[in-house]
Write a structure and sequence with these properties.
It is built from four helices and eight strands. With about 210 residues, it is an alpha/beta fold. It has one domain: Isochorismatase-like (Rossmann fold, 3-Layer(aba) Sandwich), CATH 3.40.50. The N and C termini lie close together (about 5 Å).
């Protein structure tokens, strides 16, 4: 697979709290780094996203009396999974994994800053309406094909890919550059949505073709 000036690699949330030893560790999460570093030089454009929550974020189980991590509640924008406190602004857990050396990244997009609403997607908060500004950035730069890798496949990577398609962008998920949370059939559900939306799931080996 060849890349050109209209393509962008979006690296989703490769942060300490999502890697082994972190507050919301994804199994084998740091294994995505080698894949990402291997394919990144093929892209003229690279963007990083970063979960960046206030300490009282509504997605934290600790913000809801009597609730525990992975409980489900209803909020004004719909169902919400409650998570362990993670990626709190200014903490070591919110920092990018130290092995993720991508100094040529042109944009770091922070998401989940509003304490009242979660934000899985790099494009929209979880109300599916409030934009992060990423779509406008891509449009201004003439970027029309997005390739996604990072954490986690069945949440932030997946929702970002679906929103890319909703915005009319071609979307490719680099499967071996992701790891999943696997929460209650979340991978299967996400892959069904990928098929419906036209998200293409590829392996990093495709870039050597």
């Amino acid at each position: 697979m060849q890349t050109d000036t209209h393509d962008v690699l979006i690296v989703i949330d490769v942060q300490n709290d999502f890697c082994p030893g972190g507050a919301l560790a994804v199994t084998d999460g740091d294994a995505v780094i080698d894949v990402i570093l291997r394919i990144a030089p093929r892209f003229e454009h690279v963007i990083l996203t970063q979960d960046w929550h206030p300490a009282n974020h509504t997605s934290f189980a600790s913000s809801h009396a009597g609730k525990k991590p992975y409980d489900q509640i209803e909020l004004s924008y719909g169902p919400q999974t409650l998570w362990p406190n993670h990626c709190v602004q200014g903490t070591k857990g919110a920092e990018f994994h130290p092995a993720l050396g991508l100094p040529a990244a042109e944009l770091v997009l922070r998401k989940g800053l509003d304490a009242r609403i979660d934000s899985y997607s790099a494009f929209f908060e979880n109300d599916r309406r409030t934009p992060t500004g990423l779509a406008g950035y891509l449009e201004e730069r003439g970027l029309t094909r997005v390739f996604l890798a990072g954490l986690a496949y069945d949440y932030c990577v997946g929702y970002s890919a679906l929103d890319a398609r909703r915005l009319g962008l071609a979307a490719f998920v680099v499967r071996d550059g992701c790891r999943a949370i696997h929460l209650g059939g979340s991978v299967t559900r996400m892959e069904v949505e990928f098929e419906r939306a036209g998200v293409q799931v590829i392996e990093s080996a495709a870039f050597s073709c």
